[in-house]
Amino acid sequence: MKLIIGLGNPGKTYAGTRHNIGFEVVDFLADKWNAPLTQSKFKGMYSIIHRPEGKAMLLKPLTYMNLSGECVGALMDYYDIAIEDVVVIYDDLDLPTGQLRLRQKGSAGGHNGIKSLIQHLGTQQFNRLRIGIDRPPAGMKVPDYVLSRFSKVEAPEVDEAVRKSAEAIEFWLAKPFIEVMTKFNGT
């Protein structure tokens, strides 16, 4: 089974914020696949989908960003999901708004959700799909920025990034992640 994890913070307060773009991609796929996240276990909401390419799970950890690994680690153990069958979708301050970057491993790069995953999974080697949210304007603190919403000017770029990310995930269900990287990096 392939596990598609969108990182974010639960609750209406955080809906639509820069930090929740991983949740947005999972929600987009859940709508597209008619697979609402109705199951709850290990502090996460998920659905299991039977697709022509095989089984897939969409997951939104509800532990808040900084504790995402608690949910993911427990769920992977319970369902016996291999690390190579995981992709994590999250925001990246170091990429322009809407740009995608896919990697198979790496450090947390200051992202607390990824730090938690590395801690709980015991490895930095897992597939990632990062979506650019750009850097905060001068004088704005990073925590305030990542919890802010995208501007109306940014909205079309963000919508396109969510759509492209979903397309990359669907491609990954049938192809090796290295091929997904080749096709979607930088888009």
Automatic annotation (TrEMBL):
- Site (Stabilizes the basic form of H active site to accept a proton): residue numbering on this chain: 91
Q: Where in the cell is it found?
A: Cytoplasm
Q: Name one GO molecular function term.
A: peptidyl-tRNA hydrolase activity
Record's SUPFAM superfamilies? Peptidyl-tRNA hydrolase-like (SSF53178)
Q: Which residue positions are annotated as catalytic? A: 19
Q: Which CDD domains match?
A: PTH
Q: Gene3D superfamilies recorded for this chain?
A: Peptidyl-tRNA hydrolase
The UniProt record lists the EC number as: 3.1.1.29
Q: Where is this site: Discriminates between blocked and unblocked aminoacyl-tRNA?
A: 9
Reaction(s) catalyzed by this protein? an N-acyl-L-alpha-aminoacyl-tRNA + H2O = an N-acyl-L-amino acid + a tRNA + H(+)
Complexes and interactors: Monomer.
* Listed HAMAP family: Pept_tRNA_hydro_bact (MF_00083)
**Annotated protein name in UniProt:** Peptidyl-tRNA hydrolase
Q: What is the lineage of its organism?
A: Bacteria, Bacillati, Bacillota, Bacilli, Bacillales
